[in-house]
């Protein structure tokens, strides 16, 4: 290792960036940001055969209650986002909800809403919740339908923080 590598991170780069003055990755310093209420909503879709969705909604998947398990998996994932996504701040979340429901033949929509009172937003936590809930649906149902497709994972809305409100 060179002396530069041992010197540790440089924190003299102004603004909110994941790069220090030397262009190295670092966690953004949010120390001076005000504490505000922040909320993010994300969604995603799992497309499957209509008969697979009927098995899910009828509680007939061999691995158990798909919707309840995916909901819990999404909540747990939101709480672990700081451990899963590099440079993402670990947050003590105020609330996480994950809703799953059919929105058409063979279409299951997942929506996560995450809130925190803190110095940084929760967009990544909401997106992580949706992604892991969708992967859980796939895992529990793959014996019935390996052709499922996870898609359209996206931020729907956010509020709070310096960058203001956003709605897709």
UniProtKB/TrEMBL annotation:
The pathway where this protein functions is:
Cofactor biosynthesis; molybdopterin biosynthesis
Q: Does the keyword Lyase apply?
A: yes
Keyword Iron-sulfur tagged: no
Domain Molybdopterin cofactor biosynthesis C (MoaC), by residue range, is 27-161
Coiled-coil region list: none
HAMAP family per the UniProt record, alphabetical = MoaC_B
| Protein name in UniProt | Cyclic pyranopterin monophosphate synthase
> Gene symbol?
moaC
């Amino acid at each position: 290792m060179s002396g530069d590598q041992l010197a540790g991170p440089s924190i003299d780069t102004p603004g909110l960036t994941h790069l220090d003055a030397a262009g190295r990755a670092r966690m953004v310093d949010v120390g001076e940001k005000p504490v505000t209420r922040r909320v993010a909503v994300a969604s995603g879709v799992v497309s499957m055969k209509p008969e697979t969705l009927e098995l899910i909604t009828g509680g007939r998947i061999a691995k158990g209650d798909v919707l309840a398990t995916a909901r819990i998996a999404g909540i747990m994932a939101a709480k672990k986002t700081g451990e899963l996504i590099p440079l993402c701040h670990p947050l003590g979340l105020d609330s996480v909800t994950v809703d799953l429901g059919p929105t058409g033949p063979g279409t299951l929509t997942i929506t996560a809403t995450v809130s925190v009172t803190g110095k940084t937003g929760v967009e990544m936590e909401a997106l992580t919740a949706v992604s892991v809930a969708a992967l859980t649906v796939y895992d529990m149902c793959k014996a019935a339908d390996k052709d499922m497709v996870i898609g359209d994972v996206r931020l729907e809305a956010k509020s709070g923080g310096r960058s203001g409100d956003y709605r897709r």
